[in-house]
Design a protein that fits this description.
Blueprint: H1 3-18, E1 35-44, H2 57-70, E2 75-78, H3 83-91, E3 107-111, E4 116-120, E5 126-133, H4 137-152, E6 177-184, H5 186-190, E7 202-204, E8 217-222, H6 227-246, H7 259-262, H8 268-284, H9 291-299, H10 309-324
Helix pairs in contact: 1-10, 8-9, 8-10
């Protein structure tokens, strides 16, 4: 093993040894052959203060202090973290890629089971979110609402005229809610079939706003439609993906993934495509590995670092070791 590969494997071992597999990635999950996760997020702002973008440092400190003293004890504050942990939180859908943490004014609080988080002083003062495995929006919505109600029962929240809650982006005003489901439309991607997107819904890539849908991994979300309407639309996508799998040329799926060991570089798009093909194979022909296993791999793949040999080596090592052994935290 080269020194570079040894360093990469050491980095990975330390990351996975020190961070438990998030609860939403454990056990069985509904519709998990197609659906990776469900997430419900609520945005709130404290009354009497400008939105974070216009806050002074002192005002940001006031927001953070109030959230810190109000949240349940099960939430751990993470403000000064390394790049490895940041990548893991983003891959686990608990941290926005655009939320820049510091040791004083901007932070994230993460539940012990790594299935809920509260981001402080991002675009809004408070963004509460819960993540569940597979298609389980009701459970995610219930937990998020409970957390938001707990904060709102202690802290006065800002309201806009004619709406329930004021938000930094007017499109979120009212409930301040975004509900979303991450899916793997791998067969549709191989068939180059793009899903229709009805008005009121958004289709994004793995990292949300502005990101690309590598490997057929997409997030379907809405701020304007009801939860039931999103469930109906997701149901249509699930059936379309399963129908595409029935018609799929298996040679397109059974690409040799061993090449991941030998390639000099593993750019982001190729790494995600490899995981997509392996996950699709596991969904079509269940065996030792399940689609949920590959969801855990995807969570640690370092999706933000698109260039550079270091990021490439990490991805290549993760995929190689997963194919040969399985991830240490599994």
């Amino acid at each position: 093993m080269s020194q570079q590969n040894a360093e990469v494997d050491s980095w990975m071992d330390a990351l996975l040894r020190n961070h438990a597999l998030p609860a939403w990635l454990q056990g069985e999950a509904a519709e998990s052959d197609v659906v990776i996760s469900s997430r419900v997020r609520l945005a709130r702002n404290l009354a009497g203060l400008p939105f974070p973008g216009a806050c002074s440092r002192r005002q940001l400190l006031v927001v953070l202090h109030n959230v810190r003293r109000t949240l349940p004890m099960e939430f751990e504050e993470r403000s000064i973290i390394g790049e490895a942990e940041r990548s893991l939180l983003i891959g686990s859908r608990l941290l926005s890629p655009n939320h820049v943490l510091d040791n004083a004014t901007r932070s994230v609080f993460v539940s012990r089971d790594r299935s809920a988080s509260v981001m402080v002083n991002e675009e809004d003062h408070i963004r509460v979110q819960s993540v569940t495995g597979g298609l389980a929006l009701d459970a995610a919505a219930a937990r998020t609402q409970s957390l938001a109600d707990g904060l709102g029962g202690v802290l006065p929240m800002a309201h806009a005229p004619g709406t329930r809650f004021a938000t930094a982006w007017p499109g979120n005003a009212g409930e301040g809610k975004r509900i979303g489901v991450m899916l793997h439309l791998g067969a549709m991607a191989l068939n180059r079939r793009k899903p229709d997107v009805p008005e009121g819904f958004a289709l994004r890539g793995l990292l949300g706003e502005g990101s690309r849908g590598f490997g057929g991994f997409v997030q379907v979300s809405t701020t304007q439609r009801a939860l039931g309407e999103l469930l109906d639309y997701v149901g249509v996508l699930i059936e379309a993906e399963r129908a595409a799998r029935q018609k799929l040329d298996r040679s397109a799926v059974d690409q040799n993934v061993v090449e991941a060991e030998e390639d000099e570089e593993m750019p982001l798009d190729k790494a995600v495509d490899q995981v997509s093909r392996m996950r699709l194979r596991a969904a079509i022909d269940p065996g030792d590995r399940t689609p949920r296993d590959f969801d855990a791999l995807l969570a640690v793949l370092d999706l933000r670092s698109t260039d550079g040999q270091s990021a490439s080596l990490k991805r290549r090592s993760l995929i190689r070791r997963f194919v040969e052994f399985a991830l240490p935290w599994q």
